[in-house]
Design goal:
By secondary structure, the chain is an all-alpha fold. The chain has two domains: 48 residues, Arc Repressor Mutant, subunit A (Orthogonal Bundle), CATH 1.10.10; 132 residues, Tetracycline Repressor, domain 2, CATH 1.10.357. The protein is elongated and about 60 Å long.
């Protein structure tokens, strides 16, 4: 059997082009929204042929979800600081950066509204973005339970809903800037709500 030749040229998905396309997707989403976004517009903005997009993703939805996932999921990873208070401070800072990002702050309201009308899009967002981000949050909470900082019977689902809720409401819905000391006060509120035990860290 003749060995397969390593693909070259157009057959290779070049990272530089993929990065340019991803940036173009974010620009188009922020400027025009999901409903008006087209493969043609993204290709033109990225300076590539439309075939470059279809070599990577079979549809507009797949392209958008992949790009948003690559942008959003890494921002959910919080380093183990050794304490729940430290982890929450890092998480709140990461959430603030996510919600206020120049691209994402414009994209989030539109993509949320579109998902409400499009069950397939909503399911894809949950599978590719929502669930991976919640899993990262669960890792942080399980660490705290193992250290004795949180009760073993913590309602994990409710806690995971609560963690991003105040920042989402303030920044994305009310569109009110965080005042001085807001993040620290929010962390203290989150700790009390989840039944934090300071004795575990003393």
């Amino acid at each position: 059997m003749t060995p397969r030749r390593t693909p070259t040229g157009a057959a290779v998905l070049q990272p530089r082009i993929t990065s340019a396309i991803a940036e173009a997707v974010l620009d188009e989403l922020a400027a025009n929204g999901y409903g008006r976004l087209s493969m043609e517009a993204v290709a033109k903005r990225a300076g590539v042929g439309k075939s470059a997009l279809y070599r990577r993703w079979p549809s507009k939805q797949d392209m958008v979800i992949a790009v948003l996932s690559e942008f959003s999921v890494p921002l959910a990873v919080v380093a183990d600081t050794g304490s729940l208070r430290g982890d929450l401070l890092a998480l709140v800072d990461a959430l603030r950066n996510w919600f206020t990002h120049p691209h994402f702050s414009a994209i989030l309201p539109d993509i949320t509204a579109e998902a409400g009308r499009n069950p397939a899009l909503a399911a894809a967002i949950q599978a590719m973005i929502g669930q991976p981000r919640r899993e990262q949050g669960a890792v942080m909470l399980r660490r705290a339970i193992a250290r004795g900082e949180l009760p073993a019977d913590l309602n994990m689902e409710m806690a995971l809903d609560f963690l991003p809720g105040p920042l989402f409401w303030r920044l994305s819905v009310r569109k009110v800037a965080l005042g001085s000391g807001y993040e620290e006060e929010l962390v203290e509120l989150l700790l009390r709500a989840m039944g934090f035990s300071a004795l575990a860290t003393e």
